[in-house]
Amino acid sequence: MEGLDARLAKKRKSKKESNQNGSSQLQSSSSANWFTSTKSAKKVPLNAVTSIMDGLKKLYVQKLKPLEVTYQFNDFVSPLLGNSDFDAKPMVMLLGQYSTGKTTFIKHLLGSSYPGAHIGPEPTTDRFVVVMNGPDERSVPGNTIAVQADMPFSGLTTFGTAFLSKFECSQMPHPLLEHITLVDTPGVLSGEKQRTERSYDFIGVTSWFATKCDLILLLFDPYKLDISDEFKRVISSLRGHDDKIRVVLNKADQVDTQQLMRVYGALMWSLGKVLNTPEVMRVYIGSFNDKPMNAAAGPMGQELFEKEQDDLLTDLKNIPKRACDRRINEFVKRTRAAKIHACIISHLKKEMPVMMGKAKVQQRLIDNLDDEFTKVQREHHLPAGDFPNVEHFREVLNVYNIDKFEKLRPKMIQSVDDMLGQDIPKLLKNFRNPYD
C-alpha cells in the first residue's frame, strides 16, 4: 500500500500549498495522518499468510472436496476450488450503471490509467476487466487468463467463450496492486438491452465475482439515482454478501449543498426498496476523480468530501488485514452450503421409487421443491436462510436424473461437521492473523 500512502500524502501537500489565499484552511483528518504513518504500511511475509492457507487447502482436499464431488456441488452452486483460489490476492469489484465513474475511480486510486481503459459519457467499458499487478503493462485476453493455473479465474470457463471474449486482465506494476486486485465491470444497462444484447449470463458472472471479492462498491451519481429492474436483479444476486457491499455516491461536487441533501435522501429511499436489510447501508459521498473540486460544492462540501474519501480509502486499506479472516469466513460458508446441498440431493434420491413411475415422481419433486426443502430443513435441523435459491436449483435440477444421485453418506457429513467444530478452530489457534 506504499503507493497509496505516497499519493495521498502528495495530494494533501499540494492542497495545503494551493490554499494560501487567506481563506480558512481545512484541517487534515486523523485518518489522513494514519495513511501516511509507517506502521500502517508494514509488509507481511508471504510464508506467514500461507500457513493458514495451507491448512485450508489440506482440509478442503481431504474432507470438503470429496463431498462436493459426490453430490455434484460444482454443477449446482460453485466450481471446485484450486490452489490459486486460496492464494489469490483480495479483490475489489466496482458495480454501477454506465457513466457513474467506475473506471475513473480506478484511475483515481492508481494515479494513472490501466492498459485498455476507456472513459467517456457513453457506455465505454464493454467487458469485465481485472486490474492486477504485473511486471509490465499489458492486456491478457480472457481465454488465456482462464486457463492459467496460477490465476483464480478457471471457474469462469463455465460461462463459455461468449463471456471469455468479453473478459480480460490488465497487468501493470503498481504498489497498490501488490496487495489488492481491482475488478472493473460493464455498466448495467436499462430495458431489454441488458437482458437480450448480452451474449452471456451477466448476473451469473457478477454473482461469481461477488463470491470471490472482499469488497463490492456500488457506484451512483446524482443524476443516475433510479435503480432499474436490471440493476435491481444484479444487486439481488449479491444476496449473502451484504457485509461486503459499500455504496459510493460519486460526482457529488456537481450539485450544491441543498441539492446534495435531497439527492442523498433519494438514494437512501431507492436503496431501501432493493436492499431488504434492517441495517442502514454505508454510503460514501465524494467526487473520486483527479479534476479540481467543483465550486458548487463550497468549502463545507469540500471538507465533507475529503473526510468521506479518507474513510473509503481506510476501508480499502484494511482489506489485506481482513483477507485471512474473510477467506476462512468464505470457506465456512462454502462448507455449510455443501452440507445442505448434500442433504437435499440425498433426500431427493430417497424419495424416488425403486421400480415404476420414476419420471412422474421426479417431476412432482421438481414442482414441489419448496416443500422438499422444508422437509430437509426439519429432518436435519438446518437454518432456512442457508438454503439455496429455489428457482435456480429447480432450473439446474431439470437436466439431471434424480435416480442417479448418491444416497446420504453419514461418514462424509460427520467428517465435515468435525472440520467445522474441531479442525478449523484448531487452525485458527495455531496460526494467528499475520496482519495483526
Q: Could you give the topology of this structure?
A:
Elements: H1 2-18, H2 30-35, H3 46-70, H4 73-76, H5 83-87, E1 91-96, H6 102-110, E2 128-133, E3 138-141, H7 142-146, H8 160-164, E4 167-172, E5 181-184, H9 192-196, H10 202-212, E6 215-220, H11 229-236, E7 245-249, H12 257-274, E8 283-285, H13 298-317, H14 319-351, H15 358-367, H16 369-380, H17 390-397, H18 410-430
Parallel strand pairs: 1-5, 1-6, 2-4, 6-7, 7-8
Antiparallel strand pairs: 2-5, 3-4
Principal-axes shape call: globular
Distance between the termini: 16 Å
Going across the biggest sheet, name each strand in turn.
3-4-2-5-1-6-7-8
Please count the helical segments: 18
Radius of gyration: 24 Å
Low-confidence stretches: 15-49
Mean pLDDT, as a whole number? 80
Question: Helicity level, as a percent range?
Answer: 40-55%
Give the ordered list of helices and strands. HHHHHEHEEHHEEHHEHEHEHHHHHH
Main sheet: strands, sense, barrel: 8 strands, mixed
Strand content: 5-15%
Biased composition (Low complexity): 19-31
Region (Disordered): 1-31
GO molecular function: metal ion binding; nucleotide binding
Membrane topology: Peripheral membrane protein
Model description:
The structure is a single chain. The chain contains 18 helices and 8 strands. By secondary structure, the chain is α/β, with parallel strands linked by helices. Strand 7, helix 12 (257-274) and strand 8 (283-285) form a beta-alpha-beta unit. Mean pLDDT is 80; it is low at 15-49.
